[in-house]
Amino acid sequence: MDAERWQRLSPLLDALLELEPEARTRRLQALREEDPGLAGELEGLLALEDDNDDFLSEPLVMPPAGVGSGAEVGPYRLESLLGEGGMGQVWLASRADGLYQRRVALKLLRPGLTSNDLRLRFTREREILARLAHPNIARLLDAGISADGLPYLALEYVDGTPITDYCREYRVPLAQRLQMFRQICDAVSHAHANLIVHRDLKPSNILVTPAGEVRLLDFGIAKLLDSEAPAPEQTGTGMRAFTLHYAAPEQIRGEPVTTMTDVYSLGVVLYELLTASKPYRLKRHSDAEWEEAILTADPVRPSQAVMRDTATAHDRAAQRRRSRVLAGDLDNIALRALAKRPEQRYPSVEALAQDIGRFEAGRPVMAQPQRLGYRFRKYVARHRWALATGLVVTLVLSTALALIAWQAREAVAEAARAQAMQDFMIGLFENAGRGREGEPLDLDSLLDGAVERGNLQLAREPRARAELLGVIARLRMGLGDQAQARALLEQQAAIIAQTADIPASLRLESLVLRGRLARQEGDAAACVTLLEPALGDARREQAQLPPQTADFYSELGRCRQATGARQGARQMFERALAVRRDMRSDEVGTVQTLIDLADLQVEDGELLAALAGYRQAGDRLQQRVGGQHGLQIDIGRRLAGVQRRLGRQEDAISTLRAVLPLAVQVVGTGHETTLGVREQLVALYLDDQRFTDAQAQLAEIHRERMQRLGPDDPALIQSHGLLGRVAWERNDLSTALVHLHDALRIARTARAGRADQERLVDALLRLATVLHEAGRHPEALPLLQEARQEIDAMPGADASQADRLLGEVEIALGRGDAGR
To answer: Where, by residue number, does ATP bind (predicted)?
Structure first.
C-alpha cells in the first residue's frame, strides 16, 4: 500500500472505528457504492480489529526483565519510567550510540501486544506525528523497531508542569493565562489543519516549561496508551479513547468525534484556568455521575464557580473581584465552548481563540448577544486611551501638511490667487485679534469666521476656497467635530465637481478626507465604497503625486482593515510604504505606515511580529526625525499594549515610564495624551495589584483634569471611581466612599445622552459594590435598584452585573427572591 493510498484510508478508518456496528455497516455500504476497492480494503482492516476484540480480557503481559532502566531500545538507553498505561510505557531515554546528546521521551508498545493491527496503528500514529510541525507541539524525532521487535517512537522530551498546576504554583495573572490558552488553541488548530483530532485534551497533556513555554503532547498516542478503566462506550481495542472529566457529550454517547470535540475539551481546560475547578458540581464524583453531568447538566458559570465558602472577609472580597472580571464575556466564551450539541459550540478552535483575542482587545465577542449597547460600550472602552493621541496627531500633522501643500501650490503663475489667499488670511487673524483684551482666542469662532469670510472673499477663487475648506475640515476632524467637518467636505466636493481646473492632487486629498471622516464615524464600508473606484486614478498619478497617492493608499488600507479585509489592507499599506520610501522625504509618513502594518499584525494575533514592527517604527523615527517627535509617544503606548497582552508586565511598565517624560515635554503634563499614558500605567499596576503605584498615577490624572476642567466635569467620573476602588483595595473605606460619592454626584448632574446614562450606572455599581463588600448592604440596595431602573431605560443594555449584585445583597439582607 503506497503512502497516497494510506492517506486516503487513514481518516476513513478512524471514523469507522468510532461508529456503532449498525452505523458502521451503513457507512461501509455507502463507501462500497462510491469506491468498491476502497471499501474492501477498509473491511480488511476492520476484520483485523475484530480479531482482537478480547485481547485485553486476560491480564497484561508484563515486560521482560530486559525492558527496564539501562536497557537499550534501538539507539536509545532507557533512564527512568515517566509513565505507563494499559498498552504501553513512556521512558526518559538518551542516545546510547553517542551520536549526539539529547534526551527524548521514548514511547513503547508493551511486549506481547504487538499484533498486526496494533503495528498498523502504531505506524499510522507515527505518520500523524510526523506531519505536525508547530512550536507548541512536542515533535516526533525518531521512530523504529528494536532488536527484540519492539516498535518505539522518540519524541521531544518536555520537562514541564501541567498548565493548571503551573498557573496555580506561579499565580499566573489572567492576561497571561489567556495568552497561554491561545497558544494551545493555535497548536490544536495546526493539528486540525492536518486532519488530526486530538480527542484527549487535558492539563496533563499540556505542559509549561520553566521558561513559560507551552507544549502540547500525545496527539493520537493517547488512544494507544490511555490507562483509564473501560467506559460504557469503548474503542475497537476495548480501551477508552478519552479522559472522562474532559470528554465531550458525543464521546460519552459513542458518537463520531469531530474537531468540535476538541473545542469542548479546550472549553474544560479554559474553565479550569479561569476558576481552578471543573464545570460541574457533583456529590459523589463517580464515573456514572460524571457521565450524567456531561450529558445533561448545565455548567456552573465561571463567575459563580469562583464564589466558594471561605473563612475571611478578605478572601470573599478577592473572590468578588475575580467574579466581576469573569462575569459577562468570559462566562459566555467558556459556556459556548461547553455547549452540549457540537453545532452550538464554536465552529472551530480558531474561532474560540479569536473570541479570546476579542476579549483581550476589548472588542465585542461572538459568544455575547450582539446588542447595540454592548457593542457601543466595548467600542468606547477600547478607544478611550487613544482618543487624546489621535486628536493631537491629527491636528498637528493635518495643519502642517495643509500649510506645506498651500505653499507648494502658490507658484508665480498663480500670483493673483495667492494674493487673494494672503489678503484673506491677514484679514481673518486681524479680525480675530479685535476681541476683548485678556480673553482667550475662541478657536471655534475663528474657524466659523474663516468659512464665512472665505465664502465672501474667495468667491471668485474656487480652487483657493476648496483648499481652505479642506484645511478647516481637517482641523474640525482633529477637534472631534465630525458634523462640522462633514458639512465643510460636502461644500468642498461640490466646488470641485463644478470647477474645471481643480488639480488631481486636490481631488485626491478631498477624497482621502471624506473617506477618513466616514471611517472615523464608524462607516468604514462607505469609506471603501468612496475610495475603491479612485484606486486606478491613484495608480496613474503615483509618479507625479507621490505624497497624495501614499496618503490615499494608507487611508484605503485603514478602511479595508476596519471592514475586516486585512489582506487587502496589507496590500495598500505595503504600496504606501513603497511610495514613501521612494520619496525619501516623508519620514513621518513612512513611520506611520510601519505603525499601520504592525497594527494589522496585532489584529492577526501576531504579537511578536507586531512588537518588532513597532520597534522598527520607533527606531526609524529616532534616526531620521529625532526622539522628541509626538509619534514616539503613540508608538510607545502601542508597544506597551502588546507587551501587556504577551504577559510582559514589567516590560510594558518600563516602556510607559520611558514615554511619560517625553509626553510631558512634548505636549505638557495636563494634556490628554500624557494622561492617557498614565492611565495605561494604572491598568498595568491594577493587573499586578500594585495599588499604591496605581493610586499615585490616578491622583496625578485627577488633579490635572480637575485643574483644567473644574470639579464637576463628567471627565472626572472615571478617575473618582478608580480612586475609590483603589482606596478600598488598600482598606481605606472612608477615602473610597468620598471618591465614589463624588463620582455619583457628577454623574447624576450629567444626563445629556446614552453615554451619560452608562456613566451613571457605572458610578452606581461601583459605589454599591464597595458598600456591599464592606457589609453595608442596606446602603447598597437602593443604589442597585436605581441602577436597575436606569438600565431598564436603555434598550439593549446589559443588566447581568446589576442583577448579580442585587441578588447577593438581597440574600445578605435575608430577602432572597422575595425581595425582588
So the answer is: 107
- Is the separation of the CB atoms in 670 and 700 below 8 Å? no
Q: Provide mean pLDDT across the span 682-711.
A: 89
Please tell me the CATH code under which domain 72-156 is placed.
3.30.200.20
Give the three cell numbers for residue 644: 501587556
Question: In 3-state terms, what secondary structure has residue 159?
Answer: coil
CB 546 within 8 A of CB 579: yes
Whether 314 shows a pLDDT value over 50: the answer reads yes
Residue 696 near residue 686, CB atoms below 8 Å: no
The counts of H helices and E strands in the chain are 36, 9
Q: Across the chain, what does the average pLDDT equal?
A: 79
Residue 501: count other Cβ atoms within 10 Å of its Cβ. Answer: 6
- What is the reported pLDDT for 673? 87
What would the grid cell of residue 297 be? 447538566
Sheet holding 76-84, edge to edge: 72-73, 76-84, 88-95, 103-109, 151-156, 140-145
Question: Kind of pairing, strands 88-95 and 206-208?
Answer: unpaired
Which CATH superfamily is 689-820 part of? Tetratricopeptide repeat domain (1.25.40.10)
- DSSP-assigned states of every residue in 441-503: P-HHHHHHHHHHHHHHHTTT-HHHHHHHHHHHHHHHHHTT-HHHHHHHHHHHHHHHHH-TT--
Rounded to an integer, what distance in angstroms lies between the CA atom of residue 34 and that of residue 564? 40
- Residue 803: is it exposed, middle or buried by C-beta count within 10 angstroms (0-12/13-18/19+)? middle
Length of the chain: 820
CA distance 527 to 202: 46
Measured at the alpha carbon of residue 58, what is the angle toward residues 57 and 59, in degrees to the nearest 5?
125
* Separation between Cα atoms, residue 227 and residue 398, nearest integer Å: 68
Contact 79, 92 (CB under 8 A): yes
Are the beta carbons of 185 and 269 closer than 8 angstroms? no
Count Cα atoms within 13 angstroms, Cβ side, for 714.
Answer: 14
At 111-169, the pLDDT tens digits run 555 555 566 666 666 666 766 778 888 888 888 888 777 788 888 888 889 999 999 99
- Parse the chain into domains and list their residue ranges: 3-50, 72-156, 176-206+238-368, 410-498, 689-820
176-206+238-368: CATH number: 1.10.510.10
Q: Is the pLDDT of residue 391 over 50?
A: no
What is the average per-residue pLDDT within 79-96?
80
Residue 811 pLDDT exceeds 60: yes
- 3 state SS of 105: strand
What is the per-residue pLDDT across 322-345, written as a single tens digit (0 to 9) for each?
888 898 889 999 999 999 998 889
* Integer Cα distance of 135 and 446 in angstroms: 59
Q: What is the distance between the alpha carbons of residues 465 and 451, in angstroms, rounded to a whole number?
A: 9
Nearest to 144 by CA among 106, 196, 99: 106
Q: Is 340 annotated as a binding residue?
A: no
Please determine whether the domains at 72-156 and 176-206+238-368 fall in the same fold group of CATH. no
Q: For 613, which DSSP code? A: H
Check residues 308 and 447 and name the one with the higher pLDDT: 447
Q: Is the dihedral of CA 177, 180, 186, 187 positive or negative?
A: negative
